[in-house]
Structure to design on (124 residues):
């Protein structure tokens, strides 16, 4: 089980670093899904990109893994309103099936559970 935990931690790190980098490569996509009530859309897109890259990178440092896992959970909770916004307004991303947006909402819980796994001490 230890090897699975390590492999999944590296996979998670790559996922968040990649997602964060994508905020800089494709900011227009993220700006589309920003709820109107949030200010400074471009700045928040870039800030969330920096946070995702940092969380992904620091996840691999054993000293910070638990803290970073809590940071990932906080990030996932913070971006959940944008996911709801897209699900309720599928015209924002017309090339993506509305069903996908609704399926994505409970998948956020899976991502939170995955990160939560790293807030706990590994079992021997």
């Amino acid at each position: 089980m230890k090897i699975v935990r390590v492999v999944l931690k590296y996979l998670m790190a790559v996922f968040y670093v990649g997602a964060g980098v994508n905020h800089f490569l494709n900011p227009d996509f993220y700006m589309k899904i920003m709820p109107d009530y949030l200010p400074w859309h471009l700045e928040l897109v870039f800030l969330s990109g920096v946070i995702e890259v940092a969380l992904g990178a620091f996840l691999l440092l054993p000293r910070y893994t638990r803290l970073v896992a809590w940071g990932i959970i906080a990030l996932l909770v913070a971006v959940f309103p944008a996911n709801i916004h897209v699900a309720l307004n599928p015209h924002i991303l017309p090339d993506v099936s509305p069903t996908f947006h609704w399926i994505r909402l409970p998948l956020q819980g899976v991502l939170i559970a995955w990160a939560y796994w790293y807030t706990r001490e590994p079992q021997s």
